[in-house]
Amino acid sequence: MLEWLAATEADIICLQETRATDEQTHKALAPALENGWHLALAEPGLKGRAGVGILSRREPRAVRIGFGSAEFDGNGRYVEAEFDDLTVASVYVYTGEADTPMQDEKYRFLGELGNHLKAQTGDFVICGDWNIAHTELDIKNWKGNVKNSGFLPGERAWVDEILDAGYVDVVRTLHPGVAGPYSWWSYRGRAFDNDAGWRIDYQLARGDVAERAKQAVVERAPEYALRWSDHAPVTVQYR
Predict the structure, then answer these.
(1) What is the mean pLDDT of each run of 10 residues along the chain (239 residues)?
(2) Which of 5, 156, 197, 219 is buried most, with the most CB atoms less than 10 Å from its CB?
(3) Where is this site: Important for catalytic activity (predicted)?
């Protein structure tokens, strides 16, 4: 990741599933921080789980951890940073498991997150590992996953609800009507080699910034051995 970070032209980078304490994350990213990057973190509530952050070339004017939830704010799944007239958030949504308490927890998280997103005004971009493939175009094997968490009707309807509230899925807008571009591939089998992936990493934007998205690319590694995550960076350029 440090090699990629040294080469990227991105101004703001949202991290999900750091799985590390604040101290460990600062240590791991020390070369980048020494080169001028600023880091805002929401530390995991459980050791080795979750954790999100925002790296930025400019220091944020304000940083907020969580979205006012008594249940979820301490779990390291949401952080937002304010830059003048733009707010950027990083989110890591629960994986869930159909017909279990884990799925109920995921729906509670989505419900509270949705209320927070709908209350936003102005330019706002939220990047995340949503653990939801929105449509059949967003998952290669959608027929085999209609009863699995990540492609359940209730989850997909939640994404519809957020889009109806004024958010734009900027990657889909820039890549209309095509399969993918996928951003996650299982480590099992030959999913990566066969591009049997899921598009579960979205940038949702509202306000004027949503209309300024001009290019989106999934920075997929050229071969399996060069991956540094089961996800690939989803990079959007805004005018």
Answers:
(1) 94 97 97 97 95 98 98 98 97 97 98 98 97 98 96 98 98 97 94 96 97 98 93 97
(2) 197
(3) 201
